[in-house]
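User: Hey, quick favor. My workstation is busy. Could you predict this chain's structure for me?
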Amino acid sequence: MIVSFKETKMVLVLLILLVTITGCSAKMPVSSNEDHSSTDLPQNTSPTTETGNETPLAEVTNIPSTPTVEYDPAWPDRTVTSSNGHLVNSCVPDELRDKATTLTTSDGVYLSALVLGSGNKGVLLAHEQGYNICSFLDMGTELADSGYLVVIPEYRNHGASQNTQEDLQPIDRDADAALSELKRLGAKKIFLAGASCGGTTAIIAGVRQELPIEGLIILSSPAQCGPHDAIPSVKKIKAPSLFVFSPGDYGGSIEKEVRKLYQTSGATDKELIVDESGYHGTDMYHKGEHGDALKSKLIDFVKQEFN
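Assistant: No problem, here it is.
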């Protein structure tokens, strides 16, 4: 009995020691995992924590991320290279040249463009044929400073954009490329604005893309520009619209064209503005006697319809 008791006692002692050792060894991996997880926790949780305070991509990005491309610009004597390596018209001030990017159209043409401002409200500013990216630069910078994401493309065979050999230029694809860039940068809705044939193609391309159209500004735009007919497309734009022309522009032919667009427009909230300056496109507000007032009206119209 005594021996049995001692043996029993020794067994109990051994069991206690075994439990203690096992418990310690079982805790070691847990302790190690806890240390590891505490190291990983900031890595795993900080993006989630910061997401609520993060600014959407378009609101923090106004430096283009498109790759640089080598090509022959249409006007090499007016083309410079930005600090980011993109070709840009020398008319663009030094401080804005780093906003230059290169767009690629659906038919493989390279376009110089400016990306200004930020936000999810995108604005397309499409210049007239024979002009350049700086036609809308002043209006673009004011809109960008007011919180809008603005893309100003320079159309093919103009300025720092690629020189091509086409007779009937598919310039509607240039507007397509600019609208695609707005969407890529995070625009959720868009405003279309264009001068002369730039306005014609902005209408056509605007209807083809998927983002909601908040408004339309047309400056001296023909209903038909070469092979591009904006009549079927402008019927589909229901957003508030401004149509501006100057009497005598191109012998009065531009007035007839703009009136066609105005009359065919699908918008119920639309206005036809007669500018007496006699100038064409953006020259109406660049050179006209009441140009500042006209430009202010255009900018206020964009803000009003977006807000």
